[in-house]
Amino acid sequence: MFGRRCSTLATLAAAAIVGGAITPVLAAGQAGAATRPGNVTIYLAPNGKDSNSGTSSSSPLLTLAHAQAVLTKLNPTGNVTVLIKQGTYKASAITWSFYVPGHTVSFMPINYKVGGGRPAGGDPVFLDPTSGGTHIGQTWFTAILPTASSNSLHNGGNTGLRFYYLEVEDYTQGISFNGQAGHSYHNNTFYIQASMGVNDNDVSGMTFYDIGDSYAPGQTGYGDILFTDSSHDTIYNNTFDNFYNADDHDQLHALYITHFSSSNTVDHNLFENSNGEAVKVRDRSNYNNVYSNTFKSTGGVSAYLDDFCDQACVNANSGKYRECASYGNRFADNVIESNTWWDLIPAGETYAGGSGCSIPSGQERLNTTGNKT
Known about the structure:
Blueprint: H1 2-6, H2 9-15, E1 40-44, H3 64-74, E2 80-84, E3 88-90, E4 94-96, E5 105-109, E6 125-127, E7 130-131, E8 134-135, E9 139-143, E10 157-158, E11 161-164, E12 167-169, E13 173-178, E14 198-199, E15 202-204, E16 207-211, E17 223-228, E18 234-236, E19 239-243, E20 253-258, E21 265-267, E22 270-274, E23 279-282, E24 289-291, E25 294-296, E26 304-307, H4 311-316, E27 329-332, E28 335-336, E29 342-345, E30 366-369
Parallel strand pairs: 1-2, 2-5, 3-6, 4-9, 5-11, 6-12, 9-13, 10-14, 11-15, 12-16, 13-17, 15-18, 16-19, 17-20, 18-21, 19-22, 20-23, 21-24, 22-25, 23-26, 24-27, 25-28, 26-29, 27-30
Antiparallel strand pairs: 7-8
């Protein structure tokens, strides 16, 4: 059991950014535009060209990488909207570090209106490219903090990413919100909080289909959405269907909420067909609220798993770093049509993890109510 809990700790941070080196374009605060626009809209189309301006529907770009380059050059002061025409994009991994402090960066179908339902014409599809007939194996979208120390978000904060009604298919991982990348995340004993986080992001109406190394074997899959030092995110009304690893079956989850990822809301999602737990929470990721979701044919030991590596785990696995229990999490009003509802590893509602770890008085690791089959 110790090996299962701890086998991925040293590789998790690297997995969050596999698919592209951390070589983002300059962050917004470094661009030298003489006149900065307010709100900006960028257009993508399956027949777009990255030599186009991207600032009108008649001159769309093809890739998110060039959308980021255009935004960096424009250096806007307001909200950013990336409008994506329906169709299929065979898209390489994107490492994203462009944000506008105090504003949002949204990715959505070209005919979507925020607050409306799924737009007509289907969802734009982002498909992992193939090499020799096999999907490459990468993370579709990795959000990291700006690398320049002069940027106000270099040490974390509200990044304000918004994803609406897109389909992500045949990648090893879908989205990674990674507040660890580029920062120190452990001392000699413990994992430590690397930054203030990649926070305040929303994922709504999305479909994640055929995710994991069963479909894209270039790396091990850990999450359809992987949260690493990422808090105050909202995951609402999404479908997570067919998330499987060929090996390391228990390592892939629809949502992997780990290392100081707290106060996230997960509601009204459908999780179905997996060989790992659908939702996993780990290492001081507190006050997450998982409610009113449906779980069908999900694998692992339970639909929801709280798991961390204590001293006994470290003793059994040389080179690992200690973690502490998460607390104040809620799993409520969900429909679980298969599998055990929830589990704690190591066991104990008030077990914090030993010396150096604590749970506030009156708190437990997990509160459950109203769940049903």
